[in-house]
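Hi X.,

You mentioned you wanted examples for the new student's onboarding notes, showing what a folding record looks like when two proteins sit in one file. Here is a clean example. The first protein comes first, with its sequence line followed by its structure tokens.
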Amino acid sequence: MFKVRFHLSDGAHYKHWQIRTPIKGQKDLVEYEDPTKVQLELVNCTLRNRTSVAKKVLSSQVRDVCGWVECEHIITTHLDPITVEGLSRVTYDPKIDLYWKVEQYSYEYDKVVIGDLITSGNRLYLLKLNTRTVAPLISDRAIS
């Protein structure tokens, strides 16, 4: 299982995708990908956050690490990226809202196995919806 988030801390990897690979009994392996050079396809994703930290961010408007994507696999593309035109954007900004959101739907997607995501620059898009886990949640909540 990988943990992916957009890294906003100062330093050499500012505004890069951070990929954490937990290693049992050791420190996580941490890698960074430049969003101007690669596109990441995140397979079988769950959107995660620490709501208690997100509440502090919302009230203080000071950033802190509180949201990430867990996924089973990552496919890195350097050439011929997949177009994101027509795909729903997936957003998380605890300065605005405590929960993960998907354009066009009002449901809060935290801890839901949402499906496959794709990056484009610093943004995430829904590439393939996991209809088994998500469809029952959004069937009556679509924004018209």
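Then the second protein repeats the pattern, sequence line and then tokens:
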Amino acid sequence: MKHRHLSLPRARMALIFLLALTACACSPRTAEAQDAYGCVDELDDDEVARRTRAIAREFRSHERHARAFRFGWTSLFAVFAAAEFAFIGPRAEGAQRWNAYISGVGATSAMVQLLALPMPEVWARRRIERMPSGTPEQRRAQLRYALDALESAANSDRIIHTPLSHASAIIWSVGWGTLLSVKFDNPLVAAMAFLGGPVINEVRIFTAPNWATQAWLRTRAGFCWDRYVDDAPRDAYWDEPETEARLVPTFGGLGLHLTF
């Protein structure tokens, strides 16, 4: 006689497993990394100046790329949104009119996101070099500011390259593309709605600077020797809710329990 311990179909079990695996992969992990701030007061004056110059050189070497990315993409999205709202949308009809306004909203949203993120890659080097540095205390303040700017740049780069940045454009395009496919019989416009946003978004992410993340990791790794702290960005805009997923027994077999 055969006994069946689980009553869930295989497909449902597979879906639960994938959801649990995804939630576990996306949940934040607590790790430790070396502290880049704790030993600033213990460094001698020459070492403080040397490390400040090193961070300023990092910003200088990537400043042109950062400016091109921030100002280039912000201007491109602004022009695109203005064209969709002011010229294409009012002159189009049906599916094309809908797609024009939807695309304009998407471009405006992308522009606002770029403007909302801090831009230390663009201005930090000049501010570091202009800070007063006539006394040891001022030079230490200058180093702390340089460290803050580098950490902020790393957090901005990380947000741009996070999986949510990839997924947001896909979700947006699938939603509106499906609506246009159902509401209108225009495969070309529907295809543009499905593919346009994700393609542009992936190009934006691909061209985004990513140097600050690696520079911040190198700085933390060699700054204060054997002192470790919780490896979590200190900026408030990078806080994430904790997520826990586990399989639990139910009357029908197994269920997925999510805690946010």
